[in-house]
Design goal:
The chain is of the alpha+beta class. The chain folds into 2 domains: 229 residues, Spore Coat Polysaccharide Biosynthesis Protein SpsA, Chain A (Alpha-Beta Complex); 127 residues, Trefoil (Acidic Fibroblast Growth Factor, subunit A) (Trefoil). The protein has 11 helices and 24 strands. Strand 2, helix 2 and strand 3 form a beta-alpha-beta unit. The termini are far apart. Its cofactor is Mn(2+).
Length: 448
Amino acid sequence: MGFPLVLASVIIIYFNEAFSPLVRTVHSVINRSPPEYLKEVILLDDCSTRDELGDHLKNYIAETWPDNIVRIVRTEERSGLIRARVAGAQASKGDVLIFLDAHCEASPGWLQPLLARIKEDPKAALCPEIDNIDQETLNYGATGSFSVGGFWWSLHFTWRPIPDHEQKRRKSDIDLIRSPTMAGGLFAIDRNFFFEIGAYDTGMEIWGGENLEISFRIWMCGGSLEFVPCSRVGHIFRSSHPYGFPSKKDYHGINSMRLAEVWMDEYRRLFYMHRRDLLGKDYGDISERKALRQNLKCKSFKWYLDNVYPEKFIPDENVHAWGMVRNPATNLCLDTLGEDEKKSFHIGVFSCQNGISANQVFSLSLKNQLRREEGCLEIYKIGDKPMLYSCDSHKSNQQWIYFKSNGTLVHIKTGACLDSTRNGQHVSTKKCSKSDTQKWAFEHYLDI
């Protein structure tokens, strides 16, 4: 690979990070980055209080790297991850900004593919492939599988398989992978482009939502977001959040409101469907962010959905029916009963909440799937209790048909009818009859 003629500033934000993983991150970056490509490593200390991160770290850095390639920059007060990253970017001098979490290990050859691609296209924001470092043993372990980033309508990040259209576009396993979103901890971006498109929204506080905000903004404002298979970085995935929060304020929720109000246009309705509790809450002044979007002539969120994330399911568009699915005789509605939708589970019924609870929003899709955002109801035989599994349009045991004339929801393959039960219990399927427990009504009908 030829000399890319761009230099990297690696920016590592930390708050009370343990000494060992922090310096491991720095050593790996220095040892595995060709010096002619590395401008500097900036350690941005967001007002840490651990003793070992004071003079001990300062002396260690000075003795280990006397050439000053590693610089410590300290905030005067706790800023939070989002604002600290902006401070780190402002202090940088390189052509390319590479943000890393403070508990990583760069692999050999990690840097050159990132710089070469940004030299080729300065509007491409890039993520290395992320490998797992065991949080207990700290061993560099399993190689991460190729995935792309997505999101839930509640505006939480999720990993997803590479979609078919992207697999077909790529010619080999080392080709770049276009991704709708990124997790946000590890990414590279041209410094000028980063500031041109608005850096981060510094009206957001501490942590949460900023990764989706910058993902949407990159795509909508003329850039692209890509994963780079030839660049690999290990990361310690922790069960608790490493940065800590200064109060019990719902930082993710309020930050996500700012994101939704500025970037999601009419689709912000789907965020508030999940977070009705936030309606009317103060999310601060967003006039500068709206002006930024207008000045950059950014595209609409519908453009983003149509062109970047066409596989994203929209629960109230292009469906037969959606909303609460109510059993009129009991006034009970289909309900996830608060289960974790990243897993498979049985569906139940609960007292209808009249739009207050997103747990009761279901759709009957044009592919005849009775579904949630990512999961579809599935059975194999009459008598099964329907379970929510990842939707797969090729699976016939996920297909249902609704008869508005008698209110039945019939499983096409088995002929079983969805059958209600007691409040808080799991629904089942039975041979179709005229029982009131097999009659259902959707809240909204689009083409039935």
